[in-house]
Design goal:
alpha+beta, Gyrase A, domain 2, Elongation Factor Tu (Ef-tu), domain 3, 2 domains, six-stranded mixed beta sheet, six-stranded antiparallel beta barrel, 19 strands
Amino acid sequence: MVPYAGWEMPVQYLGVSEEHRAVRSAVGLFDVSHMGELYFEGHGAAACLDALVTNDIGKLAIGRAIYTVACNEHGKILDDLIIYRLAAARFLVVCNASNLEKMRAHFATHAAGHCEFTDRSRETALLALQGPRAVDVIRKLNGPTTLSDAPRFSVLESVLAGCEIVAARTGYTGEDGYELFCSEHTALTLWRALLEAGASFGIQPIGLAARDTLRLEARLSLYGHEIDETTNPLEAGLGWVVKFDKGDFLGRDALVRVTQQPLERKLVGFEMVGRGIARQGYPILAPTGEAIGAVTSGAPGLSIGKNIGLGYVPEAMSRVGTSLGVEIRGKSIEARVCATPFYKRA
């Protein structure tokens, strides 16, 4: 257990490799109650939220979720978010625990006078059920209902194991699964019920370490690593969540200026050719030995049998197949830019 953003968080239960493989081959259960849950409600909620994020909230249907980022006026990333439209004028925004205070203040300021804004993070628990057998666990608990048949990136209110929940077909692992929001008072009941129902499917509780290796293989950004207030979504490979044609939003003018010239750097995935594991902060080197960037995330790719990483390099060095070096203990170890995601489920 380690302290993180005011919480005591599990790093591992049985071990990173075993937990990682359980999610890839069967099913894993994560306690991610540290995430922030923020609500926009009322007549002006959709318009208010749309002006604060890059993706198009106006096109988000009721019962659907969308991934996006919130930028400051300079086009830099304040946080990456998933937004769930629970009703025509009711939205749940999930933010990173490390950014909760910042995003709560940011959203509250902009929502004032436009819609009701509420932070319900402390009273809300969040359990993530991830892996190819996640649907089987839900069916065992719930029977053949709309919850087990819910499509990807959908959200609905339901009851599971006697607990009222908001269930979303979303996740942070590169696998199929669910994120289940419930009251802090029913979280333990739901946790135990999911473990019991999943026992015959090989379910394991999963800690932060395996969560990180899973999301890295799926090339999912982690705030404080790939993205922060020094990065913009275009260089981070998140241009697909920036909808310039939807109208004005915070940071739009700055991002338009970014599009008017070549990117100075790009986030790339790489695999180690030489022996060594890239870690956050290790210098990325050109073939000449010159430092040209830094590793943002790196770990063994347990599902693919290669050591992998992410990092920013000059745009000219970002093409797949480009040879790089990573400085590990004072030596340049060969690496190669590769296509991402590193792992993609069948």
